[in-house]
Each structure stands twice: as C-alpha cells, then as structure tokens.
C-alpha cells in the first residue's frame, strides 16, 4: 500500500466531501478511491469517515488524522518547491493574513510592486482583526501586532506600531480636554475588544520609562479598526489608535492629539509563519518584501519612525518613547 498516495486520496475525499468528486479530481476510478480508504482504515485500525447515502463526515480519529496528513503533505510540497523553484523564482499560491488596517492602508497600495517582482505568485489576502489558526486555515504567513505568545510559529520582527491618544474636536468641546492621566477617569473612550476572548483592551502610557495601564469606561465597543476610527470621528469618545491611521485626520483637524507628553507604549509588528514554511521561497520572498516595505514607512519602521513620532508637528510627543523603543531593541538584540 502506498501510504503517501493514501494520504493524498484521503485528504482529497475530505476536501471534496465526496468519493466521486475526489476520484474525478485525481483521475482515478471511484472504486480505486474507495478501496484505498478502506485499506487505510484497515491499516490504521480505526474508522476515519462516517458514510451515508447523502453525506460524509469525519470521525474524531479521522479529524485528527486529516490534520496530520495536511501538515505532512504541506511539508513535502514546501520541501520540493524549495529546490524546484530555486532557479525559476517563487511560484504557486501564497495565502497571507493581515490586520485590516495594515492591509488596507499599507499593503494593498504597494501590492503591484510585489506582483511585479514575483509574477508567478497567486496572492490570497485575508484582512481581519480576528486571529487565525494558520495551520487549520492553511495560511502561509501572517502579520501580527503585539507581543507573541510562545508557539510553534516562527516570527520575524518587521516593524513597530506607534499609537496616539486622540479625540474628535466635537467630543473635546463637550467634555473638555484632559491635562493629566488621572483626569481620564472623567472621560469616555471608544473601547476595543479582543476577537479572541472578548476582553476589552486597556489603555497604557509610558510614564518615567514605565508602562502604566489605564482602564477606560465607554458606551461603544468594537473589534474592527475601521469601526474604531469611525466612532472616534463621530465623537463617541477618546481613542488610542495607530498613528499611521490617525495621521491624515490629525493633519485635517478631524482628530486632535491629547496628552502628547505621555505616549502609549509601542508594539512590535511581526511576520509569523509555520515552521514547515521556513524553506519556502514564496514565504521568504513575501517576508523580505514586507520587511523592506515597513522599513521605508516612517510610521512603521525603525529609527526614522521614532524620530518622526518623537517630534510630531515639531513638538516632543512623549520624551520617554525613545527610551522604551531602545529597550525593546536591546532586548531583541540579546536573543
């Protein structure tokens, strides 16, 4: 029994949810596909599929075996492609996932440049603030903001998220402008809650080199960056948002920065990918390109971004911001 072929047939049956469609796509007789699955179940001594006249469904053992098969087949494909595509350049389908705001404002406007460099790549971009299961959803690479939990994913730091505290003039006219962090207790915020656990994210400020968290009250909570910005522009409350999103509205006067002497703590931006994509030419090409893109962006890169954010409109915008970023860089260089 060819176990590798059996894995391919089994995953194709599950994906197609049909023996007949799987047989057609593989160019095999339906009876051959049926025999391969039966022999595979006999070899493993478990039932993989529940069959009826109308539908197929995975058993618990079948679901576990399917996930392992998908990972093994992906490993083989990535290993082969790393050698096959070394001379001709990356090709095939590249599935990436990015936060919606980064995708819309940074990635999509420069996507033609990536396509020009790598015309043989088919790019599928998911844009959501919901954390994805990269293995289960077959995502090759994702951009993530914030400190990453320990996992089997490989991560590469590509930039820094700088945030700004701001509000619409209409809100400040109604409620006044806070002059100290303590005065925030008398104000409302547009709150942002995690799509992963539903928890409302606290604000923070860098005070004397240390991060101070602040819990804000509010009447509106969202879990989407564009909705967060829209609510702020309508005057629902104050927000802490990425400076690259807020900048056009700060320059137009639709938003005003508040408490500029205390900056929110910056957050790292990382490209993450499963360990079995480490040798993939297409993932390596994308990560190198997006790192180059972020390095050239003054609000998402390295030293240039710190210099810019520390002198917004010619004014110091948090004199401890530079020291915090330098601490992040020192910690990373020690790893």
Automatic annotation (TrEMBL):
**Domain of life of the native organism:** Bacteria
Q: Kindly state a single biological-process term from the GO annotations of this entry.
A: DNA-templated transcription
Q: Which InterPro entries has this protein been placed in? A: LysR-type_TF_proteobact-type (IPR058163), LysR_HTH_N (IPR000847), LysR_subst-bd (IPR005119), WH-like_DNA-bd_sf (IPR036388), WH_DNA-bd_sf (IPR036390)
- Looking at the record, the residues that make up the HTH lysR-type domain are 1-59
Print the keywords alphabetically: DNA-binding, Transcription, Transcription regulation
Pfam families linked = HTH_1, LysR_substrate
PROSITE patterns documented for this protein: HTH_LYSR
Q: Which GO terms describe its molecular function?
A: DNA-binding transcription factor activity; sequence-specific DNA binding
Asked if the keyword Cytoplasm belongs to this entry, the reply reads: no
- Which family, according to UniProt? Belongs to the LysR transcriptional regulatory family.
Q: Quote the protein name from its UniProt record.
A: LysR-family transcriptional regulator protein
Recorded source organism is: Azoarcus sp. (strain BH72)
